[in-house]
Amino acid sequence: MKSALFFSLLLSTGSLSAVAETPNIGADEVMLERGRYLLEIGSCNDCHTPGFPEAAGELPSEQWLTGSAVGFQGPWGTSYPANLRLKVQGMTEKEWLARVRQPMLPPMPWYSLRDMKDEDLIALYRYIRTLGPAGDPAPKPAAAEMAVSTPYIDFTPKNLPQQASR
Ligand code: HEC
């Protein structure tokens, strides 16, 4: 009886430590896969990766998220999709969480990041870090009415009903 109890204790201790090790390794990979998945379905590459929409999303991850020097110009001025691969290098997870919940200039859908769960945002951050630093920082945003010398896409609404009726 005694030895049977000892044996079953030994067995359960053995399987406990196996359980404790496996999820840790698995959790990291699951987290990175989740980060990549969120990035892809969150359309982050559409703006943050040059040429991504033109290539119908068929660009290797080495080229992802290096930011763009083609601005978006509208009533807010001119904004440039940030180089996220450089951005995450200088940020801790805590700083990333705080940063991505702040308002940003259009057309960045910052409210989507604001409403994400912490663990999803951290998965994104960790995945982006695995891509490593690449490219140059995007130009600084320009205030409304300020002329810019970079290429830009005009986001000014045209032909709105109240304008058309004038
Ligand atoms: C429609 C275009 C667009 C899409 C889609 C987009 N972004 Fe952005 N993003 C921008 C622009 C433009 C800026 C610069 C905003 C500013 O200057 O305030 C920006 C800024 C950011 C910043 C701020 C970086 C800094 O300077 O601190 C982060 C972080 C970011 N985007 C992450 C993401 C993530 C993650 C996704 C996908 C879920 C995403 N973006 C999707 C256009 C976009």
Structure description:
By secondary structure, the protein is mostly helical. The chain has a domain at 35-45 and 61-154. The protein has helices at residues 2-41, 44-48, 84-87, 93-99, 110-114, 118-131, 161-164, and strands at 71-74, 77-79, 152-154. It has a 3-stranded mixed sheet with strand order 2-1-3, with no helix packed on it. Strand 1 and strand 2 form a beta hairpin. Helix 1 crosses helix 6 (118-131). It is globular. Residues 42-44, 46-48, 72, 79-82, 84, 87, 99-100, 104-105, 107-109, 112-113, 124, 141 line the site of heme C.
Bin the strand percentage: 5-15%
Please report the total strand number as a whole number.
3
What's the end-to-end separation, in Å? 95 Å
* Series of H and E elements: HHEEHHHHEH
Q: Which percent range fits the helix content?
A: 40-55%
Question: What summary fits the major beta sheet?
Answer: 3 strands, mixed
User: How many H/I helices?
Assistant: 7
What's the mean pLDDT score?
A: 88
Structural class: mainly alpha
Radius of gyration: 23 Å
Large-scale geometry: globular
| Bound ligands, named by name, code or SMILES | heme C
| Spatial arrangement of strands, main beta sheet | 2-1-3
Q: How is this structure best summarized?
A:
The chain has 166 residues and is mainly α. It contains seven helices and three strands.
SSE blueprint and pairings:
Elements: H1 2-41, H2 44-48, E1 71-74, E2 77-79, H3 84-87, H4 93-99, H5 110-114, H6 118-131, E3 152-154, H7 161-164
Parallel strand pairs: 1-3
Antiparallel strand pairs: 1-2
Helix pairs in contact: 1-6
The protein binds heme C.
